[in-house]
Specification:
3-stranded antiparallel sheet; mainly alpha; single chain; RNA-binding
Length: 483
Amino acid sequence: MTSASPRLRFAPSPTGYLHVGGARTALFNWLYARKFGGAFLLRIEDTDRARSTDESTRAIFEGMRWLGLDWDEEVVHQGANLERHQTDARALLSAGAAYRCFCTAAELEERRKTAERGAFKYDRRCDRLAPDEAARRAAAGEPFTIRFRIPDGTTEWEDMVHERVAFPNKDLDDFVILRSDATPIYNLAVVSDDIAMRITLVMRGDDHISNTPKQILLYRALGQPVPQFAHLPMIHGTDGRKLSKRHGATAVGDYQHMGLVPEAMVNFLALLGWSPGGDREVLTRAELVELFSPAGLQKKAAIFDPQKLEWMNGQHLSLMPLAELEPYVTPAIVAAGLATPESLDRERERYLALLDLLRVRARTVDDVVRQARPYFPGALEYDEAAVAKHWKEREAAATLLQDVHAALAEAADWSAEALEPLLRELAERSGVASGKLFQPLRVALTGLTVSPGIFEVLVMMGRELALERIASAVSWLRGAGRR
RNA sequence: GCCCCCAUCGUCUAGUGGCCUAGGACAUCUGGUUCUCAGCCAGAAAACCGGGGUUCGAUUCCCCGUGGGGGUACCA
């Protein structure tokens, strides 16, 4: 074994969308390859042609790209590797490591049913067939599968996360490697493909741990070097069971549409089942690569906590460079009908300042959009709770807001420094605490109870829009808003 | 049934025999915060699954139990 650079792969089957569990597996493979200067390959494992779809393949590519997990080589089967799989199966057959089995699926099913308490194991009856009889029956066109013969002994390996794992071979079943229609079974296909792609480290979910001894035996029978293995813990839902649709969003695309940012998703997923040690938690992709080490890989299954994911997304929203955040927010702003890409571009500086102002209080891109609405022209909807709380006495609120409007209309300088004393004096003259003025004003300007500081809102909104919003609030209070 | 894997606050985790009166983060609760909070600050509550060993000394090493998970297909 040379110290050549490692080659890893992520090999999802295209039978659905990219699942967060799969994404996490892909992420660790990617992290390892990027950290240790290896190659990260993406292989679409469509051994099961019936369930595989092109749509799934596209969804996987899209999910991977969104997460920023770039791959160095790509393999999509489309049956192209079938011939190699068959060649490997036949090589095993002629080398005597496998044998033809004429038992039909129906017969097997029947025997399984009558076996004691689910303790079924193939009895090797076809392995006891005389070689010439087997050859004769095959030549006569009788359908058969090819079964791998499990040798005696123990199969063990040094797992990168579990250390030594051992399986007594007597507990393994002679498994089928080639179906009666000459298509390969998963265990053969993976080994054959991993050999062809010269994979040196197989990193996958630990639900594959019991496939590993079978695959190691296959490598040996094929006379090929056995790669290293790393079996990652699973991700469970909040009820402790394997993550599934019941737990809500499980496709990475769902999170994209929920306003999550890939940096946060990657960060969160990396910390599910891995730790850099110490207290560091909010990390960029580059820091993750820098810090990554298989020593921090966890053995225990982790529960997916959407709340922490949201919190982490908020952290990334606040910490990432504005220029990186902008491309995530703009499509959502446009989709909400607040502006066009062109209009945002014309006022880019002001737009970025707005994002900077809003992102602190946001956990998702959707939160940013919701908070951004008041700063763009167009009628506001007043939040019910906000109205109930701060515009309780409608006429009084209207009067107060009218005074604010009058005062602001005469402001010589539209800056936070000038506006603050102006409004505070007005509050004093009106005999109300400043908060009793700022809150109704906040509702008038934003329709919400939560916003940045009131002077920052005023400045960001600009004189014209701000005055217009206050005037609309006054007429709403005196007109349509009245019951 | 059989085989394999796993086990620190509710959750993600730090911890590699004495630094542990077990640390951090999310969530929860409390208090503070020139105007709001979903922001910020301060604080509280909250865990080494059980039993045996090994050792001067176990969260840490070993064994057994218990619990959880995975596998046991002509699925992947």
